[in-house]
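Recap from last week: sequence in, structure out.
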Amino acid sequence: MIELAIALRAAALLALLLISGFALARAGGRRPDAFDAVWCGLALVSLVGTLLARAGHFSLLTIGATTGCVTAVGFVIGRGRAIAAAGTGVSRIRACAALSGIAAALWAAPPYETFMAGADSTMYVNAGVHLARTGSYEVAGTIAPLLPPALAQAVFASVGARDQGPYIRLPGGLLMTRRDAATAAPAFFPLVSTWTGILTAIGGPAFAPTVAPLAMGLAVWALTLFAGETFGLASAAITGLVFVANFAVWWFGRFTMAEPLTIAFIWGGFVFLGRGAPGAAGIMLALASLARAETLVFAVTALAWWAAWVPVRPRDLGLLAGGLVMTGLIAAMSVVGMPNHHLAYLWNDVSMMWTKWTFIVLPALADGRFATAVALLPMIPILLVVG
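Predicted structure tokens:
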């Protein structure tokens, strides 16, 4: 009976993901294929699950109810929209990409059980297990509020420079916004833990690490499909073989980390961009930031090169930026107020660079070197020509 209940919950979630993705793709004026349905549904469930977890109301029931409401709206919008014609001559490419993803997921399974002593992977897995049990990312504690300020300062070190926090409650895992906080939260971005939480709610803690092979299968699917739809079937086949046979793919397909899910959303965004759906591409890239925010910098840089070298319609750039900003703002709601060591380290780096350049620029301003350098700037082209 337990196995039957797990199978029913998994089937219900898969059906919800595919139906919601189909509805959203239709609402966007597209004739969805399997990739459209999976990625649009994945984006919606990811966003809904993360926001519900941040609000402390995470469960399969609340995810299903919220996603179902959005799906109904999508069907209403899509019913009256003109649907773009499906592409021709790409069925073999799509089949090759999907099979490559399935092969990568099966080859990596079963995942490592990193419930203990697995570094970052342990926190991703256990945060999801805690999320499924309590409905929230936050971990309650009673010790920190009872400590005297001097002792709390000695015990709970600050990750951020100048003792501005966040503060370490559990080294490498849990952070607090204040030293006297009654709760702590995982130190990482939340998307992977959202999915380990969903999988735990479906099949118990043993299912949490299966996010690793599933996410890697999605990543290989997106990469192979992008190669195929951009360069042809031969490129798709070669890309699929290279990634399925790659040791790094096998490793990250077994060791729960943020990279596979990030890759899946980034390259899924590029697939949508190639298909002429820049709004959907922006949404996917924004969701990638919920797994590893720094990869968004590289993705935006790549898009800037694309806009510089390829004739791009202003409307497409507007839709891309709109999807990116809109989803990014919604996603940011899930991390506002939550301690995060990535953001703390970024602030530390900015502070150090500011201090470094302050000691360089201020003396130059005082003794006139800066003004001299600015005055000589117009001479640089002349000197280059003469030289």
